[in-house]
Design the sequence.
């Protein structure tokens, strides 16, 4: 990567939602998931290089809008993402996102990308990356609770990065499970629709929860879990939005992305502040053990961290450049003299700039 | 405004830097400055309606990148802005910015706009708005210290919104002052280039400082100021970046935008935490006095607050809609079933989505 070379170009590359679809279709979803997982792992291994902070959230009655900035010495990124569970009733996605990558040396934006599809990819890639060090070796059956927009990505990431063969589906909305079945027919996965959460979870190696309600839900209770299970909790990701009961957490060894954010947003928001958790990067780096024995219950209490988007943006940017996808946006003024911003307004004389037909002013 | 109507359109309006220039030329700079000042005042008068926070900054050796989010019950906005004083040596602007306005009810982005030019407009509009309640009545002479990218906007805002007739210029770089003289020739302002800060300041009604160095500079010292002056301190806006000496602040009544942010970023970062300051909205609303007598020295320690960008984005959005400027961006995936994000990838069968020519993957 040579960001500094591109920094003098003040027109960032723009990857639209349709262009991101074309990118994934060109590379193949399996290679995208494994490529993003590799980038995330590489960035988690240099955790200490990053200027990190918990995301900034503006909460409203029906949802939340968040900004997730992060930077190392050369590259800055942020993601804009919302969470509005009632959106689907209006025909809108629950989660929509976009993001920007910029050059730290100059502050110039390099890349503006859709991140709705990319967030689904990076979330699934992170889940699989965590499960590789936390799930029982030889795991082949996964329960998938919540069959909404992100569920197919979870199923395929676990199939291709972890070797899951059977996925047991449950959703309050039978149409969501039917949609998943139709979408993944021919994927090679053995898909089974279940009548209850208990039926889906019983005997599974891995339990993935990816539900969307903004309420203190308890999707998984302690009576459902069995020794040796790994729980991949994806849907509980903001204050008041949980999926696992306190009993499940108390019975498990719990791993998170970034403690200051997860204590507020994760399922561990239910637990005391000194409840012991381990950051995933410590396990990836070999500083801390992951799963310690075959009977241990492990939980990855995932909320989504800015570093995952930083890595995903890097992957999408490099891929878009390699494939020649995207277009340039004239987001910044182009000036011969950078101190002469005012000069960009001067077409003819100054008087024509100062006064114009004021009546058309929208104010 | 009827944002909820547009919220179902997932393609935000995009106003590029050239389109923003066209907008300002169409409306006229004077009407833009006064329109933005009106919007800022209207939003400051409903200060308590907003979910406010100090901006989030990622500092690096040569500069800073900041995100500035804010929201009321219906509308959310944020600005991305950098500050890199050494950029001009590379032919790049010191400050570059863009921003987004979104619908709080759904989280859908409505408007993506350049904010480099717009930031200069809103900063000047805010300065003039503050000076209206803080400067001596009948002020007609302004010293303008720092003649870079924002200086012409300050000069014109004070001319048209406050009645300033004479502007005395000083910059370490004589080329910057010459550029300002050339740009504003024919504006009706009496422009005088001065040999020193002291010469520019002596006898002025208003002193505007808009310098860019990221160092604890002292542009204005206590010996330079005279009873009755109003000091509009614009350039000191992040930790370690100041323009006024502590003596100037101690001798003055100081006004700021948002105390939690200004204590960290403003010139008052030099003062103890209990140094008395007044928030501008309190004065605009009539809760607190502004200037109390003709001999009082007043300081507007401006750092730039998210609410000013919120108001400026509203102005640019309404104006762009009224003028038919801008274009739509396909930033979000368009889906018939919002739970079927995966379906956007399915062109033909699933197997063609999973595996593709992996060798072209940039990773």
Sequence:
């Amino acid at each position: 990567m040579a960001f500094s070379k591109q920094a003098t170009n003040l027109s960032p590359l723009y990857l639209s939602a349709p262009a991101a679809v074309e990118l994934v279709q060109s590379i193949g979803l399996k290679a995208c998931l494994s490529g993003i997982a590799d980038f995330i792992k590489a960035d988690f291994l240099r955790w200490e290089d990053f200027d990190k902070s918990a995301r900034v959230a503006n909460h409203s009655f029906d949802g939340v809008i968040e900004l997730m900035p992060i930077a190392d010495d050369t590259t800055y990124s942020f993601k804009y993402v919302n969470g509005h569970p009632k959106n689907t009733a209006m025909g809108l996605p629950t989660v929509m996102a976009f993001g920007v990558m910029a050059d730290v040396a100059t502050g110039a934006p390099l890349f503006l990308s859709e991140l709705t599809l990319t967030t689904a990819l990076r979330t699934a890639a992170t889940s699989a990356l965590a499960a590789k060090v936390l799930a029982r070796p030889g795991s082949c059956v996964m329960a998938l609770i919540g069959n909404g927009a992100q569920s197919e990505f979870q199923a395929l990431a676990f199939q291709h990065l972890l070797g899951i063969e059977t996925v047991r589906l449950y959703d309050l909305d039978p149409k969501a499970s039917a949609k998943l079945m139709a979408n993944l027919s021919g994927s090679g996965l053995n898909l089974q629709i279940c009548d209850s959460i208990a039926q889906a979870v019983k005997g599974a190696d891995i339990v993935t929860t990816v539900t969307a309600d903004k309420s203190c839900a308890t999707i998984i209770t302690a009576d459902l879990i069995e020794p040796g299970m790994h729980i991949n909790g994806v849907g509980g990701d903001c204050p008041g939005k949980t999926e696992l009961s306190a009993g499940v957490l108390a019975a498990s060894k719990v791993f998170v992305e970034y403690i200051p954010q997860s204590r507020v947003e994760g399922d561990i928001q239910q637990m005391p502040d000194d409840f012991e958790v381990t950051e995933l990067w410590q396990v990836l780096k070999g500083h801390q053990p992951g799963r310690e024995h075959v009977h241990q219950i492990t939980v990855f209490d995932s909320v989504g961290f800015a570093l995952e988007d930083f890595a995903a943006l890097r992957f999408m940017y490099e891929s878009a450049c390699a494939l020649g996808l995207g277009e340039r946006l004239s987001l910044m003024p182009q000036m011969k003299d950078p101190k002469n911003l005012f000069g960009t307004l001067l077409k003819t004389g100054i008087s024509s700039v100062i006064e114009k037909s004021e009546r058309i002013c929208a104010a």
User: Anything to note?
Assistant: Residues 1-7, 357-363 of chain A have pLDDT under 50 and may be disordered. Chain A has twelve helices and 17 strands. The two ends of chain A are 45 Å apart (CA to CA). The domain at 3-117+308-344 of chain A is CATH 3.30.1780.10 (ornithine cyclodeaminase, domain 1).
